[in-house]
Write a structure and sequence with these properties.
It is globular, with a radius of gyration of 26 Å. The longest helix has 21 residues, at 10-30. It is built from three helices and 54 strands. By secondary structure, it is mostly beta strands. The strands form eleven sheets. Strands 4, 25, 28, 29, 31, 32, 33, 34, 35 and 40 form a ten-stranded mixed beta sheet that branches. Strands 26, 27, 30, 36, 37, 38, 39 and 41 form an eight-stranded antiparallel beta sheet that branches. An eight-stranded antiparallel beta sheet has the order 53-51-50-49-46-45-42-54, with no helix packed on it. The chain folds into three domains: 53-349, Tachylectin-2, Chain A; 378-564, Jelly Rolls (Sandwich), CATH 2.60.120.200; 571-713, Trefoil (Acidic Fibroblast Growth Factor, subunit A), CATH 2.80.10.50.
Length: 715
């Protein structure tokens, strides 16, 4: 222990110990033989450098919280601790729970159940539950008990309860209620709101949450709201937030003095995309309206701040969550900051929770399968057959015995993880000596369409293949149909490496293989990844093994699964403090420039005859907390005044609020500058040189509204 503590800073070491303890407790509920901290042997202190981490390490954070799918978030605070629950659909273990001390750095607390087995379809036997598993959990804490309620389509409303967030969890079932939320009122009544259209029924539950109180009066929320309810009582007022179904939809909030209303309703967030496009970013057009943030819960901090964790769609990478501040206005909790309500910053100051842990990623995905344990971030596709997988049959590897299946879509015991965005490279070793005729095993992207690379064994020998399968994009559609495979090699060695590289800016995946783990050979054309409504998820990386003969087959051994995230800490996280830079519009390439004859900041075309290089130079002055002042070559400072960007002589005084800008880094090298006087952004007018505005509301999805800049150091 002393040797390990010498390698890890004290605060982070304490966090690692908490994570180790929490993950060891997961074994009782997740059934995964859970591992110690993944990546610790490779240098845990570097996790934040190699995996997506929302905490920027300077007192700010950047969205999304996790650059990987986490759907339908609901959040609560219990004392100084925060808990987040999310949808897991058909994946097992079911109902994922995260824990945080600061709302920014999260760690896995556990799952509600290792197996939600409600019939053969849940086991991929004669059917499936793609798109019909766990939906939209509601997490609450009352009288020393944690409750998580979540509907299972075609089955019923599941009620989980535990005195500890780490479980074990007890379960009972109620009749189905769509996208419901529960409120423990201060008079002892327990209300449940549900539904996707007005009037939204508000029912009462029995005190033990094992039945509905059919004798209680019926209540309803009447008005234009949506689904994905989150019901609260705040300072004596009843508050419900929800959103319309879809990707480009707004969040609504309703407030009433009594549970019977009348309810006042307004938009909680309006048209906020956070710069996320409705298609692959590399393919987006200037008029792309984007995918807006919608559906999420909210909570307060002991310091009195209010925050929302809210979801947005990110194409084939899936739906992700964002942390955004809440401002109360006219009795409504509205997302945003004063001067720019109903919009949300991509980068902002961390919540004042009284705790400042070291930056730490929520998801460290790599796994060497050592010690008879598995990384707890793995999930099975449907309920697994535990007799057909092992971590002890060959110590240090994951052994998968094949079960009968015609393709990856119906293969049992496929072990899955989220691929990380915006780019990730997944590699795994595979030993195939134990395969039988009819076996297929390898590394895949599970979705519809799906694709995989691996080994197929027949009576004629073995081949390396890349396979794609296409099926319906809607739930209940026909099963996938595979197109002819692309062959990479015949009778390869029995020890191989397979790799898939995902780029979610292009919604593209490339498969390759190797005989030595060093030199990889691509196979087949790039595969286009999609988000679809069959699984209602983004793509999932899968380790799989199945047999097409109709009978069980042999076994394969997976080892050393690794995930590389080349852009986890790229230029998108840099602020050129103390440097002199130029700023060029990402829309038309024009430069921000000081007008020497006036007090205005203007933009000039790169080939303008009156462009003087020195007038485009600005020194980035560090104001701490990711905030900067921009000093022109003549000593004046950029200031936001009356919605315009002007240059101001401070007479030797330090920059004040008007001269202070939050430096906001978006992905793909785009930077925005938020004026702290109005929480709005600098922006140029595309292809129209002139004064620069300081009142733009937020990023346009395609980043072509003149609000995004590319910076370059000149000295």
């Amino acid at each position: 222990m002393n040797d390990l503590s010498n390698l890890i800073p004290a605060c982070r070491f304490a966090h690692v110990l908490r994570r180790l303890a929490a993950w060891s407790r997961l074994a009782a509920t997740a059934g995964l033989c859970l591992a110690a901290t993944p990546g610790l042997a490779a240098g845990a202190g570097n996790d934040a450098e190699h995996c997506w981490t929302a905490d920027n390490g300077n007192g700010t954070y950047s969205n999304p919280l996790f650059y990987g799918e986490f759907e339908d978030p609901d959040v609560i605070r219990v004392g100084d601790d925060y808990y987040l629950a999310g949808t897991t659909m058909h994946m097992m273990p079911a109902v994922e729970i995260l824990h945080s001390k600061d709302l920014v750095n999260w760690e896995l607390a556990g799952y509600c159940t290792s197996k939600l087995d409600l019939g053969p379809a849940y086991r991929l036997e004669g059917g499936n539950i793609y798109g019909n598993g766990i939906w939209a959990p509601c997490i609450r804490y009352h009288n020393g008990m944690f409750y998580i309620l979540c509907n299972v389509n075609r089955a019923g409303l599941q009620v989980f309860r535990s005195k500890s967030i780490n479980g074990p969890w007890e379960r009972n079932q109620l009749p189905s209620r769509h996208d419901m939320s529960v409120l423990f009122d201060d008079d002892g009544k327990i209300y449940l709101i549900s539904g996707g259209g007005s009037p939204y029924p508000i029912e009462e539950l029995a005190p033990d949450l094992r039945s509905f109180d059919t004798n209680a009066p019926r209540h309803a929320l009447i008005g234009h709201m949506g689904e994905g309810h989150h019901l609260y009582k705040i300072q004596g007022k009843y508050v419900d937030i929800s959103c319309q179904p879809g990707g480009a939809v707004d969040e609504y909030v309703a407030v009433a003095d009594t549970i019977d209303g009348p309810w006042r309703i307004t938009k909680m967030v309006a048209g906020e995309s956070l710069g996320v496009t409705s298609m692959a970013p590399a393919k987006a057009r200037a008029n792309d309206r984007g995918l807006w943030i919608h559906q999420g819960g909210m909570c307060d901090t002991p310091s009195g701040e209010w925050w929302s964790i809210i979801m947005s769609d990110h194409g084939s990478a899936g739906r992700m969550v964002n942390l955004v501040p809440i401002t109360w206005d006219d009795g409504f909790p509205l997302i945003g900051l004063p001067g720019n309500l109903r919009r949300a910053p991509n980068t902002w100051i961390k919540p004042n929770t009284g705790c400042r842990p070291e930056p730490m990623p929520a998801y460290v995905a790599s796994d060497d399968f050592e010690g008879g344990r598995m990384n707890p971030h793995w999930q099975w596709n449907h309920v697994p057959d535990d007799a057909k997988w092992s971590l002890t049959g060959q110590p240090g590897v994951l052994r998968l015995h094949s079960l009968a299946s015609s393709n990856l879509w119906t293969a049992r015991n496929s072990l899955c993880q989220r691929p990380a965005g915006p780019e990730s490279i997944m590699t795994v070793e595979l030993a195939t000596a134990g395969m039988s005729d009819g076996d297929a095993a390898g590394l895949g992207l599970l979705s519809t369409p799906y694709a995989w690379i691996g080994v197929v064994k027949t009576a004629d020998g073995t081949t390396v293949q890349k396979v794609e399968g296409f099926g319906s994009g809607r739930r209940g559609g026909p099963p996938p149909v595979e197109i002819p495979a692309e062959i990479g090699a015949t009778n390869p060695p029995t020890h191989l490496w397979f790799r898939v590289a995902c780029n979610f800016d292009r919604d593209e995946a490339r498969f390759s293989w190797s005989t030595d783990g060093q030199t990889f050979t691509g196979l087949g054309k790039p595969f286009t990844t999609t988000f679809q409504l069959t699984t209602f998820q983004g793509v999932r990386v899968a380790l799989f093994h199945y047999n097409t003969s109709g009978q069980p087959g042999g076994f394969v051994d997976f080892d050393n699964y690794s995930v590389d995230q080349p852009r986890a800490r790229g230029r998108e996280r840099e602020i050129p403090l103390g440097k002199t830079i130029t700023l060029a519009s990402g829309a038309d390439g024009s430069f921000l420039a000081m007008d020497p004859n006036s007090n205005e900041l203007v933009n000039l075309a790169a080939d303008a005859t009156n462009l003087v290089a020195a007038n485009t130079h600005f020194k980035v002055v560090d104001l701490r907390l990711g905030r900067v002042a921009l000093q022109a070559a003549d000593g004046r400072y950029l200031a936001a005044e009356e919605g315009l960007a002007r240059l101001k002589d401070l007479g030797g005084q330090s920059p004040g609020p008007a001269e202070s800008f939050q430096w906001v880094n978006l992905l793909r090298g785009d930077t925005m500058l938020m004026a702290l006087v109005n929480h709005r952004y600098l922006a140029t007018t595309m292809n129209h040189p002139g004064p620069v505005a300081a009142n733009f509301p937020g990023p346009t999805p395609a980043r072509k509204g003149g609000e995004c800049f590319k910076w370059q150091v000149v000295k």
